[in-house]
Amino acid sequence: MERSILEIKGLKTLFYTDDGVVTAVDGVDIKVRAGETVGIVGESGSGKSVTSLSAMRLTPGKVEGSIHFNGQDVVRLSEEEMR
């Protein structure tokens, strides 16, 4: 079995607005193994972009869950380490 290069478990992205907390992504799990190509599809507004941006920590929202890229926990990395 090939190792996973990206493993996302329980991804949740929250945005804090004037009207309260909005859960944009709730409980996404993704596993990508070496050599695989993965596409994310869905209706407009279903969270595809927010999911992708959250995995790269490029969203202004709060990201919860675990995101491991090449075995490294992306959620715990500093901004400098992310660069």
What characteristics describe this protein?
about 80 residues; mainly beta; 4-stranded antiparallel β-sheet; about 15% helix; about 45% strand
Mind explaining what this structure looks like?
- This protein has 83 residues and is mostly beta strands.
- 14% of the residues lie in helices and 46% in strands.
- It has helices at 48-55, 79-82; strands at residues 4-17, 20-33, 62-69, 72-73.
- It has a four-stranded antiparallel β-sheet with strand order 2-1-3-4, covered by helices on one side.
- The longest helix is centred in the middle third of the chain and has 8 residues, at 48-55.
Helix content: 10-25%
Please state the average pLDDT score: 92
SS-based class: mainly beta
| Largest beta-sheet characterization | 4 strands, antiparallel
The H-and-E topology, N to C, reads as: EEHEEH
Distance between the termini: 30 Å
Please state how the strands of the largest beta sheet are arranged side by side: 2-1-3-4
Q: Provide a count of the helices.
A: 2
> So what's the overall shape?
globular
Beta-strand content bin: over 45%
Number of strands: 4
Gyration radius, rounded = 13 Å
Oligomer: single chain
Spans of at least 5 consecutive residues whose pLDDT stays below 50 are: none
